[in-house]
Amino acid sequence: MCYTKGPIPAYAITDHALQIFVVQVLEVKDDLEWPLHVYGWVATRDSVDPKRNLLFNRTRDNCQVLTQEDSYLQLTGPSRAVVLIDLVTFQVELKVKGDKESEDKFLSLKVFEYKTPTSYRDKPYLNHTCCSSKRSTIEVTYAAFDETVEATVARVQVINGSWPDHLRGLVVCRTTSSLDKGDILLLDSRDGGMPITCDVGAIELSRRVVSVEVRGQLSVDVVASRIDDKSDVVAKDRVVFRYRICGSNHGICDLGFCKVEITVSWSLLATLRDMMGSHTE
């Protein structure tokens, strides 16, 4: 959200970006068995900033439990758009928690790169990169988009009514443009109730930042289902936002028992080459 408000500098533009969809543990090998108590991190690095742009980050005392039936990492990033200028580097450093720290084992320790496509004339498609190691195979799913802006789902808030305690919540979005599939999970309360701040009704999302193609749209779904049966959808609604280069806009999902207001903030991207050029002018 660097350029949502205020003057927009000349080096803030629409540019190529990499949209990360999911990271999944496909299989475990060697001496590992399901379920897994996983911690560590998965991150990207691009030309804009050499620091890690974290997709997943958990400490040993806050592991995620993965089962063979549900082996997707709960992503919390990226914190900004992954800009695709030169190479984008993916880094994976994940461990499985043992009974004591000395018994912890590496699940995956991998680095791989994604190179900028030579042409963007073809429609974007989902890339599935598998990282195999001694103890696991991990798959990262992503897509390269042409001209994009950064959309941040800044706030999701119950503004009328209340969310029932016996219902789990799902917030998922999709960029409706040249890619005709690929959901981006912003929140899945899984086996618990919706994580809502009691005093203001704000729903605590796991991740917020999405890349949206110019001339595209961002759709956001809010879904309520029973905690003991996620296939039993009780209520669902969708709001669609047309892309913008700056500012914020709002939409409301009406689930019947409550209304949920969604706020999206928009920003152009800053690229290293343009920032460097602006300092020499």
UniProtKB/TrEMBL annotation:
Signal peptide: none
Residue span, DUF6598 domain: 17-264
Domain of life assignment: Eukaryota
Protein name, per record: DUF6598 domain-containing protein
